[in-house]
Structure formats: structure tokens, C-alpha cells
Write a structure and sequence with these properties.
single chain, 3 strands, 3-stranded antiparallel beta sheet, 5 helices, 152 residues, 2 domains
């Protein structure tokens, strides 16, 4: 009987059984999980950008300009950081005038890129940053909070 058990334990499938049992015991602990950031989400909001026409219908900004909405967001953030550094304030304290100036510069750039690709942007473009909050009251629930970055 023992030789039979020893032979079963040496079978390659046993490695999988051991790994499954280990994963069940360890659960979502850091060194054993390749996605530890999902184990304990940040209390700060995540966000994404929506580029839309004047009516609020999303447009394919990647096809028109060659820039994804993530790149558009990065350009806006970098422009805002530079503008705020110039006047020695934090980006969270930026005035509506500074934000509008950064937005106008970014829109000029986007329109130039769209013209080069012969795919002009609509006359009116609305860019909205949507913040996603996770509320822990009554279980995990998500809430979205849109913030208009600008229209132009």
C-alpha cells in the first residue's frame, strides 16, 4: 500500500494539487498574488476621460487624432502641472482661468493632429473627467462623478 501511495504522490498532477491547496490557504497575500493592487483598493478615486461632441456623444478621438483618451488626459495633466508650476500653485488649486487656458492649448493641439489626419474634430468638443469612487457603506458600491474639463 505505501509504495502505491508514494507512486501517486510522485505523479505530476500532485504539484497542481499542492499549488491549489497553497493558494486556498494563502488567499490574496502579496508575494503569492500577481495582482496585489486589487486586494486592497485605494480610498482615492480612479478616473477616466470621455471626449465627446457638443451633444455629449463620445467620439473616437484615437481614430481622429491618433491619441487615445488616456494620452489626452496625460497631455491635459502635464499642461496643468506646467501652468501651475509657472505661478507656484498646486494643480488642485488651479483657477478656472488656468484650467481653461490649458484646455484651449490642448484643443488647439488636438485639432491640428486631426487636420493632419484629414479627420477634423466636431466644431464643439466636450472633455469630461469621470471620477470613480468606491463606497464601503452597505458593501462595495461604486459611484461616478463627472467633472467637465472644458468645452471648445
Amino acid at each position: 500500500m505505501w509504495p502505491r501511495i508514494a507512486r501517486i504522490l510522485r505523479h505530476p498532477i500532485m504539484m497542481m494539487v499542492v499549488l491549489i491547496l497553497l493558494c486556498r490557504v494563502v488567499k490574496n497575500a502579496y508575494p503569492f498574488n500577481s495582482f496585489p493592487m486589487y486586494a486592497d483598493p485605494s480610498p482615492y478615486p480612479s478616473d477616466y476621460l470621455i471626449v465627446a461632441d457638443g451633444a455629449g456623444n463620445p467620439i473616437n478621438v484615437k481614430q481622429m487624432t491618433g491619441l487615445s483618451s488616456a494620452k489626452v488626459k496625460k497631455k491635459f495633466t502635464q499642461g496643468l502641472n506646467r501652468a501651475c508650476d509657472a505661478v507656484n500653485i498646486e494643480p488642485t488649486e488651479a483657477t478656472p482661468e488656468i484650467r481653461q487656458k490649458v484646455f484651449n492649448n490642448m484643443m488647439r493641439e488636438l485639432r491640428e493632429l486631426a487636420e493632419k489626419r484629414n479627420r477634423p474634430l466636431p466644431d464643439k468638443v466636450r472633455i469630461t473627467n469621470v471620477l470613480i469612487y468606491q463606497d464601503y457603506k452597505d458593501g462595495a458600491a461604486f459611484r461616478e462623478e463627472p467633472q467637465l474639463l472644458g468645452e471648445g
